[in-house]
Amino acid sequence: MRLTAAEERMLDGGDGPAKQKAMSGLVQLGRAFDAPRMVEIGYAHIHAGMALYLHDVELMEDLATMGARMAVPSSVNIANADTVNWRATGAPESLARLQQRAAGAQHQMGAACTFTCTPYWAGHWPTWNTHMTSIESTVTIFCNSVLGARSNRDGFFAVYAGITGRYPLFGYHLDENRRGTHLVRVDTPLRSVTDYSALGFHVGRIVGEGVPVFEGFTERPSLDALDALGAALATSGGVALFIVPGVTPPYATTAQAFAGGRVPEQAVDAKRADLDAVYDYFCTRDDGVFDIVHVGCPHASFEEMKDYARLIDGKRVADGMEFWITTSRAVRRMAEEAGIIRTLEASGAKVISDTCPISCHFARTVSPDPKLGVVPPPLRSIVVDSAKQAKYVRDMIRCDTLLTGTAEAIETAMTGRFVRNGRAA
Amino acid sequence: MKPPITGRAIVEGQASGPALFASEAISFLGDVDINTGQVVGDLPSVHGMSVKGTVLVFPYSRGSAGAWRFLYQLFKHGNHPVAIVTRDPPDPSVVQGAILAGIPIVSDIPDAAWGNMQNGQMLSVDGTAGQVTPQDDAPISSPPQPEDQR
């Protein structure tokens, strides 16, 4: 791998032990994937330090102590606890305190403590051709597909990239990998953001790690719809980039999205029955028994917070029902100032930031440090409006799910009876 | 000692252990229990076996951006494989987890050698040189190579 003088100095320890450790890891990663050189990045979405995992917070503290500082604008991914309002989720104080320690390390390193999987709603908005890195697959696919930035699906090394301002040149940083591999023909009107989530889950299962190119939307998808589509594609498949011609930079037409303009003759079909099949797949428990209704995966935007308030429309959450709305602390603050949080909370909803059900209930499958005293909650089933949340609730916290549209999920919370997708009043 | 099998150096370092050979793709997110090291996923060839202390051999990794975390957690719980050998290069996230945990990886093992690997066979893995060396007389073979490629 060819390194610049500045990169060689980092590798040799001339810029301190943190940059040396980070550059050494990045060089190994680059060699493994035949990267010819590093690129300068403009943005990093990094690890939160997950309090539930053994010695995970120390990973961030150690780097901060070694003198690591973020060389580029950086945001921080979702955490294992609402670091302000942890009691609302049933988390013990010990867990919240440990998560707060991670925030201390982030502050020391100069990363913005966004604690969200949707940092773009908090102002981190990389632009066309910005090389970047992200530990969160939802951020990777949104930034690649909606903003035209260049990101791989990274893990912990997003932190190393942030510290050095460098990333090895491979994968979705290269033009040749940013071309369509599958044509998808959408053959049904999409009625809700959750329909985009179901569409993404359906298509991700078929295209795997490919790059799907979408045709047939009857209108330009909203930013929230594009967010939901990407999150689901990145969950059922390993998709890092999707292309909607006219939306995804720089592709104006379907032909441009495929190398040499060669549009595949065979298309992946997405019909109403395919979306219905995704809803059915995630309704794993049909006896109407559930403990939490959850919306806000990925973390809700300000627009979605407004939607929730409109859909609640002065009603009250049914007795004995938990209704969770998850969002970032930045959006929460804006919604607070707009009077939206007051409206939501007046219904009995819990507005939770920094975390979400799949992040704060991992205790079921991860072995947290016994000293934390984390007890897995006795959950039977969770009602969700996101295929991503559904998949990880089912597979990682091993809990049943009921997937439905946002309006239906809110009606479920207000009536206490599960409302299937498409049946909202 | 048998001659080394030459593959591709992915993560540097050296380690030896008995081979645990999975014929299916592995996802570190969900297929292996970090508390016990046991394979709990739907992998008939190795289901119920422990990856702890083994040279874990599998064809390729199934994608998840969270794979690094579970490999690192296996290491923190002391239940990690000492080395990994794959047919195809593993996902970037697996590579990142292995670098964090100090687990050497060699990939791109030639097909002829792949077919002969067996459970329990002692393997030495050199992730810096990109070589896997069988430590006993178990039937593992390296394809003949012209001198100039050695």
Automatic annotation (TrEMBL), chain A:
Keywords: Iron, Lyase
Protein's UniProt keywords contain Lyase: yes
GO molecular function: lyase activity
Residue ranges of every copy of the Phosphomevalonate dehydratase large subunit-like domain listed in the record: 1-410
Protein name, per record: Putative aconitase subunit 1
Pfam families hit by this protein: AcnX
Record flagged with keyword Iron: yes
Domain of life, source organism: Bacteria
Automatic annotation (TrEMBL), chain B:
The entry's keywords: Lyase
Region Disordered: start-end pairs: 121-150
One Gene Ontology MF term: lyase activity
Domain Phosphomevalonate dehydratase small subunit-like intervals: 26-106
Leader sequence segment: none
Any one Pfam family match given in the protein's UniProt record, by short name: AcnX_swivel_put
Compositionally biased region (Pro residues): 141-150
UniProt-recorded name of the protein: Putative aconitase subunit 2
Organism encoding this protein: Stella humosa
